[in-house]
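Lecture 7 notes: from sequence to structure.
We start with the chain below.
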Amino acid sequence: MRNAGLGSWPERRLVISPHRDALWFEGTTTSHAGFAERVRRTAAALAGLGVVAGDRVAWTGGNHPSALETLYACGQLGAIWVPVNARLAAPEAEYVLRHAGASVVVHGRELGGLADALRDRLDGVRHWVAAEPPTEGGADSLPYEQLLDEADPETRDEPVTLDDPCLIMYTSGTTGRPKGAVLTHGNMTWNATNQLLGFDFAQDERTLALAPLFHIGGLNGTVNPTLLRGGCAVVVRRFDPAATLQVIEEQRVNSFFAVPTMLDAMAREPGFTTRDLSALRTIGAAGAPLPLPTLHTWLARGVTMQQAYGMTEAAPGATVLDSADAERKVGSAGKPVFFTDVRVVRPDGSPAETDEVGEIVIQGPNVMAGYWNEPEQTAAAIRDGWYHSGDAGSVDAEGFLYVRDRYKDMIISGGENIYPAEVESALLELDEVLEAAVIGVPDEKWGEVGLAVLVVTPDSSRDPEAVRTALRERLAAFKVPRLVEFTDALPRTATGKIRKPDLRVHYLHTEETPA
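Predicted structure tokens for the same chain:
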């Protein structure tokens, strides 16, 4: 099979829909024909830098067309794309680039300083390329546009199969060193198929590339499926609530993927109720539970909300919950996407009963091949063909999945299992609570007790006991956190997930739990 994966998409779109919009970025629109030519030029430029099949080409930066151009160009060369989180500190980025064995790094305008810091530390990186003129540093990086201008846009078609690596995407590393999930051309294609079936993308779809493209939700939630369908990706460099609403209105955006914090921020904008969102049909929300007030806010604007559950290792789709079931099945992550199987199992691997909490395991053609150069971790994660997520969950009598929490985040207090996600959901029902995170802290009497860290409205009394009293009306007494703290902001990853390890480091060092 030749180029069964992403490398072939731009060329096929050139034949099928050459004049349709493929990309919009900061006022410039590129057709599918123009995009295909730029991909061919990018492939030629990378080949000129010595990139051959199997080589790793890294890309890092804010959202920019060069991310998609280098991804598809790697597909045409049989090379492997490595997106790197632009928010990593230099030592973290160095680890990822060294572990992946990247030979070329393409960086955004804001990361010239990173290129300067790592240039002499990474002998394996032969070339650093600036996608745009850097705002600072990066003077020794090769200019991307010049390389493309000088490249011959000839068609390249290095043979690849569905089992060949397409990209290596590194996990957030919240439990140690990040691991590189190897996603094959088959993984990417089957995930796109699942998304196309679940979201019902139109041929003239206009989707917003809002979440970071160096994360799997931002890349594969709606962007790649839309381009495969022949639609347009409206690319915004970074998230700004007011500016994003303006782009949605002006570009007649039909769909996008976001995390709940983004949706909350846009809904709080003064112009939210007056912006013309009539073209917006569907939002895919994942990365954290979607609070019911947020759901209602967007539903009131006539937008279909699809809550999803997934992870990098599944490229990312595993389950989805449609708006039609969102209130009836509040808190659920929905049912498995079409070509993916999801089960809940006990520690011995046997199926859990209805409503019994166990580990969520996933199987399907979208599940990764393994972790790059980590055979032991791969063997631990993929057993008998099933990816073991490490998430605790249960399935109800109708087959709807409920993600309870990470197993490692579960609090055991006086012999009772407490799932922080359930407590956080109850906290977010309180009018004054904007954001909530619950962690376990040591307690001499109970073993562990819950600590709730909250971001609240400016007019809140910040009274811990008032919060606890309100929770007792919603939760069993043993689930109500013994401790409540207030903060101005919760630490988050680039995708909006709360970094609970950071909270543990802070509060376990500064708070004394009661006896």
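Points to note: The longest helix spans residues 32-48. DSSP finds 17 helices and 27 strands in the chain.
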